[in-house]
What we know:
Layout: H1 4-12, E1 16-17, E2 20-21, H2 22-40, H3 45-58, H4 64-72, H5 74-91, H6 94-99, H7 108-123, H8 128-146, H9 151-164, H10 173-182, H11 195-211, H12 222-225, E3 233-237, E4 256-257, E5 260-266, E6 272-273, E7 287-292, H13 294-297, H14 300-303, E8 307-308, E9 323-330, H15 346-350, E10 352-359, E11 362-363, E12 378-384, E13 395-397, H16 408-425, H17 431-444, H18 450-456, H19 459-477, H20 480-492, H21 496-510, H22 516-533, H23 538-550, H24 560-566, H25 573-598
Antiparallel strand pairs: 1-2, 3-7, 3-8, 4-5, 5-6, 5-7, 9-12, 9-13, 10-11, 10-12
Helix pairs in contact: 2-3, 3-19, 4-19, 5-16, 5-17, 5-18, 5-19, 7-9, 7-11, 8-9, 8-24, 9-11, 9-24, 10-19, 10-22, 10-23, 11-25, 16-17, 19-22, 20-21, 20-22, 21-22, 21-23, 22-23, 23-25
Amino acid sequence: MDTLYDSILNDSSDVQLLHLSIFVWITIFTILGKITIMLRGKLSGDMLALGIISFLLLTGTLSQDEALSCFSSANVIIVGVLFVLAAGLVHAGVIHWMSRRLGNPDSLGKAIFKLMPAVATMSSFLSSNTIIALFINVLKIWGKKINIPPSQLLIPLSYAASMGSMCTIIGSPANLLISDFYSITGQNMRFFAPLIPGVVCTIVGILSIIFMRKHLPVRKSPEESFESSKNYTVELLVPTECSCVGMTVEEANLLNVTGGHLIEIVRFDREIISPVPADEFIIGGDRLVYTGKIQDILQLRISHGLVNATHHVFRVEELSKNRKLQMASVSSDSYLIGKSMAHTDFEERNGVVLVAVAREGERISGSPREAVIKTGDTLLFEGAKMNPVHFENELHFFDKIALPQEGRKTHISLLIILAMVMLSAFKVLPLLHSTLLAAIAMLATKCCSIEQMQRAINWKLIMIFAGSVCLGKAIEVTGLSVMIGKSVAYISGTNAFLALILICLFGTIVTEFISNTTAAAVLIPIALDTANLMNVNPMTFAIALMISVSASFATPIGSESNLLVYGPGGYKFTDFLRVGLPLNFIILATNLLVTTLVYPL
């Protein structure tokens, strides 16, 4: 017997609004809502994905079985297992092995030619985010060694990672999602199905970057903005007879002051108090260290009877072993976005103080604790050493990472990946089975430990992937994809190539503002239904779309790869546009030409 809830849902399926069912409108509303929330950055990706799944389930747009099938999909498991394989390669020294082969090129063009193919090859099988996070500091050291600004290397690093992900179906979660949906045609997509179009697009892309290398920006990195603590801190000494002695910092109005705030007190016995609690008493001889607008803070000499300190003690070499200066870039999923540090308990919980904030390579003037934090901002903390593992997917620390050295395990891990690829490519085993075996082999050969494996798995990304699968399924089951496919076919007439251009062009544009996984989820049901309606090869549409949604070069928010280098490179938003916009159209044209040659319509 149906429940009241089921009967309400059954009745809702007959409701029409402007000749569309209520479930079609719910799906459209969900798509627009997701894009809006992603652009505003008000909710983390995993929570947004969970909300979408719940909304589609509760409204009856997806049945319980359909919603749960998004989590039981083989590709959801594969995404998680690939993180384990990436950990195995990293901890076996593969990144170090590749970085040593970059050499000492004597020009920017040669440096790009050395860097991009190596990164693109790795990103065909590894998470591009993992590669970029590890290579950022490698390139900073390499750039100084070969006398090339890091800002001219980090954009090619990001672009190479995106290009390499076009070449295999495990190159990115978006590729796996497209290959998953392609199975509704009754066929499975081969491991190397996108290889030829992907490799050609990668080669063309690399050559294009070399040709446009003069447009790669020279920007000041956050380290240069923060390189001298005297540029953003000022110390004032409390005289013995000062009227503030014996008062708390809050009572004396010395905690949050015009233009800045008190980040620490250095006592005469070298005791350091940081963060400074509001009820901390002031003692004669205290050195008050402020950060913010130095000219405004110096007014305290007049208003509170403070004097200049005799010498600047806030230097890295004077800090104890447990007190460090640490820089971190704000990721797109950080809960700090849209907030000021003064309105969070982050400093108190972690025993640190926000000393400065840099945006687009320039330090923000004024009190850093009052600055509203944005995606890609670089934050400079002083205080207790923070463990980057505790802030994964929220803050990306710039600490120098000791890359595992190459050795016997390096070659073992590479053989494991090669075996996995061969088993899948020649259909000896399904992709799920071969990846699971490879993960077990990584653990058995001690290329990575269980602890390293657990830390490597990005549960947020897995949830985002499952949510995208659900959204794609809703587009399919409600018939929205067929409706849009009919519209595309109508606009294109009998010209299937024009329909392919329209879908790929839209994919290239939309992926500049939302994740490529979301773009793939929205467009792949439409692409396949368009191919079916026009009675042409669905593989052509699937492969072309796979490359299109990975070709996100024109904005820093278009892909996590671009965002990861945005802060460390000190880039401005338009820096990506100058190089990335023409590259988008170059890759789009190459993609359409090569894909239709390899997979004729």
